[in-house]
Amino acid sequence: MTNATQSDPTPAQVTMTLAAIAATAATPRPSGETLQDQSQRASLGITAQLKDSTLATGGKWALMWLALSPDNANLAYIASNSDLSQIAVVVRGTIANPIDMMEDLDVGTVVPFTAGGSKDIAVSAGAMAAFTQIATARPVGGPTLTQALKSLLTSAKPQPTVYVTGHSLGGCIATMLATYLQAQPSFPNNPKFALITFAAPTAGLQSFAEYVNSRPWSLNERYFNEYDMVPQAWVESDLLYARDHWYWDPKLPGPKANAEVKSLLDVIIGLRKGNEYVQPGTEKPLNPNYSKHDKTLVNQTTADFLGQVAFQHANSTYLDLLGAPNVPAGPMVTAVNPTSGEGETEVTITGSGFDKDSKVDFGPIPCAKFSLDTSGKQIIASAPDGTGIVDVRVTTNLGTSPAVPLGQFAYDGPAPVVVSEVSPSSGKIGNQVTITGSGFDAKKKWAVAVRFKETPADGFTVNSPTEIVATVPKHELVEPKTVDVTVAVGVATSPTSPHDEFTYEG
Asked: Is the pTM of this model over 0.85?
């Protein structure tokens, strides 16, 4: 699985593993938790993973310091290997949708980065704000990152290597943080600084890139997946190429950008307000032939394009491209049964990654009564009193399960309507397809509707609350030929997703 043995991993494999571990417990518990509780949960999860001898870090690293920013927007930690010859300063990356991050970070305004040691370095205001949060963050009653690093270096071997690293936004901040740390006077034991980033958008303009590259690094490497959109930001030529040329080569399976995606990318390009951003570091491109991609997300739809963006940007994808073992996955909810009821209803939660530290929430309401199956794949919960439609989610020290359509629970109402699969996912007019999901139950057929985009199905049969068999209707599509299949039950309509897509053939 790896290109190097576990006893001799590459610096890129080690630092990308450390960067992936930084995402531990990034999402707060849905029912709420204090920043101190979340920090403690992150510390426990990170410590457990650093002890894992199967990872590229080999179980030889230990957590030495960790701090969250007051709004949980940013996290950083310091770890060291067992003999203190290597220390890592790790910044957490994006915890939201990568496209959202690209839209939210202020790149239309540039400010001087004097913390790097020069008055003439221009960086984005958004990157500067994120850097400031990391540079000033501290645990309750504890030291700042710089103070903690200085204290740790006092006990280190002579000339230890200090790796500064991060994935995504964490990599962007790492370029600023590494430059800032290297400019600090009087670090004990004369450390050598190495800057290694992954999937990182650039923080600044030409002046920033030139200054970073002029510094005396022991390593200055920038790893990026050639089909990851985030490190293309905010270089206009790269984003234009992604908008107009990605996946149009017939040798590539897709997904091509449709009009909606192109409009979204135009908005992101416009956020720069003419600022010319430049990437620092020695380029280390990955995945040049698109051999690594999610084969289920290749249709010319907005959902597939954004889904592929997220896949190409993921920590797990970068670890795989580098030949490193993946870090342990956090909890995942795949289904709840039943999907409707009232308080005290017994609900079976199915998924993975559940453990003895699991906590269950029904939306913003904590669940007090539940039991865990020894397999770690099932929880039996007594629904707390609530109202409306809520996401059932599980939190452990490794993270919080994402909200998923099949993990919804409806209080005092009909089950949420969800399409989770259309099989086969392609075919011709008149073919029959099986639609799988939930909430299809209806006492009268007239209360149910099945549509292929806007066109009603040419007949359908509701076999059960989880299955409908429908006949593919005619269409007037030219391009694209992929449509969303939606089911309506009464006033409720299934949300669209890559799982509900059907492609017309011929």
From this structure: yes
